[in-house]
Design brief:
- This protein has two domains: 67 residues, Type Iii Antifreeze Protein Isoform Hplc 12 (Alpha-Beta Complex), CATH 3.90.1210; 108 residues, no CATH class.
- The chain contains three helices and nine strands.
- The longest helix has 24 residues.
């Protein structure tokens, strides 16, 4: 007996073919792997790369000339901040001065130096006859006071009243930087005659100069917290 049912077709098994070297997917994969390796190598080398830049070889105060004599080269990792500092080995601009206090060993940022015409302070020599705190050193922040001379015949009560009326000590300049402490005779003697070179803002300069010419004494008080 012959069956009337047709035989079922035999399914064809699809065979996987190994991609050839011209397969675009293989080429794309190779490109991605190569790019990842190159990017990783660049990141590692960049992280470990150091550059030589200038740092202060001692405290720099506003108005002080800045050149190779008061700088030193240090190796640091800056990443993308190379343009903020001066690279060692390259010529510095002429006639640079510090515009703010730069601490010993601090990297010298381009924003911390400039031309003398950019300074907003002026150095003023202030004689101090009384005792001076040992915290008043180069780079320290101080308040400058003026103590008017009192009448010889005034009583203590009269002097108190005078102070209440505004005739007592008053502040000439607050939180100014001491550029230099010049001791008499070149020796450091606490309480001896001293000349302080302080950096006075230009808008307070007239008052300080007027007080220096008036009858009275200048007193310098260190600011709590120390240096600029």
């Amino acid at each position: 007996m012959t069956s009337s049912l047709d035989p079922l077709p035999t399914p064809t098994v699809a065979r996987l073919r190994r991609p050839g070297w011209r397969d675009p997917r293989l080429l794309l994969g190779l490109v991605l792997v190569a790019a990842s390796v190159a990017l990783g190598s660049w990141a590692v080398s960049s992280a470990g790369r150091t550059v030589a830049v200038y740092a202060a070889a001692g405290p720099l105060t506003p108005g002080e000339p800045v050149d190779a004599r008061n700088l030193r080269a240090v190796e640091v990792r800056l990443g993308s901040g190379d343009g903020k500092y001066f690279l060692a080995g390259r010529p510095l601009p002429d006639d640079l001065v510090a515009l703010r206090v730069v601490g010993d060993g601090e990297l010298v940022a381009r924003s911390a130096v400039g031309g003398s015409e950019e300074l907003a302070v002026r150095a003023v020599a202030i004689p101090v006859a009384g005792a001076l705190s040992d915290r008043v050193t180069d780079g320290a922040l101080v308040d400058v006071w003026f103590v008017p001379a009192s009448d010889d015949g005034a009583t203590a009560a009269e002097r108190k009243a005078d102070e209440k009326d505004g005739g007592g000590p008053y502040t000439l300049a607050s939180q100014v930087v001491v550029a230099q402490v010049a001791e008499s005779g070149g020796t450091l003697v606490t309480g001896g005659p001293t000349t302080l070179h302080v950096l006075v803002p230009t808008d307070e300069l007239a008052g300080v100069l007027a007080a220096l010419a008036a009858e009275g004494e200048i007193a310098v008080v260190p600011v709590a917290g120390g240096s600029a």
